[in-house]
From TrEMBL:
Protein name per the record: Protein-glutamate O-methyltransferase CheR
The organism's place on the tree of life at top rank: Bacteria
Any one GO molecular function term: S-adenosylmethionine-dependent methyltransferase activity
InterPro entries, alphabetized: Bact_Chemotaxis_MeTrfase, CheR_C, CheR_MeTrfase, CheR_N, SAM-dependent_MTases_sf
Species of the source: Chryseosolibacter histidini
Amino acid sequence: MKGDIGNDDYRKLLDSIYHQYGYDFTEYAESSVKRRITHFMNGRRIGSCDELQAVILDDEGIFEEFVQEMSVTVTEMFRDPAFYKEIREKVTARLATYPVIRLWIAGCATGQEIYSMAILLKEEGLLDRTIIYATDINQKSLMAAKEGMYSLEHMRVYTNNYQLAGGKGSFSDYYTAKYNAALFDKTLRNNVVFSPHNLVTDQSFNEFQFIICRNVLMYFNQQLQSKVINLFDESLCTFGFLGLGDKESLLFSGRKDHFEKIDGIQKIYMKIK
């Protein structure tokens, strides 16, 4: 595709997607969405927004590929190790006071964060009484998360992250090498509920002691960020915890006074009212 996507064409495309499929991208950061749309069109030699609209409204399979393009799936295990180290040191002791711990990993992508938290909770003696709700808008990513198989070439980075995050054992004990892949121990996901969930349009579905949503809000505009923070606020129990990405904050949220900073650098908060 040559040239920029016009605002009218852009709005028309997103409105048509919302009306047919219920996916609302209108409050995502516009520059990011336009860049991803352009990449999608170039890869399939689609010449205009009107042509793209006709194709994805006619073919649900292509629309699923479009959602995959719109979704953020770049992640790694124990990404930003200091975040996990702070959870070990400042969050797990309070989580241990609950007979059942409900953890929501919102925007779980291909699952590296799920297994990272499962390993951490296992080492802290909390995994057996934790239910992890792993949700994402992208069904293909959810399938990859459920499979728990990742390229062996990433294991060196993942191992280093694990050690920096305060890992208490040998990271290789948690997976089995199989050909060029690492298959993570299925017991890590015994208490994981994998489910599609759209942060833009779906509602709260439980009460949680801990919600992690990292490097997702940064792709939303300010209005949508506030909406999602409200959703998290409504979903957390009093004294529950919220973990965001290092480029995200509660600064512009109307609910910021509902939270107390546990770690301002690692963006870990506790709900206080």
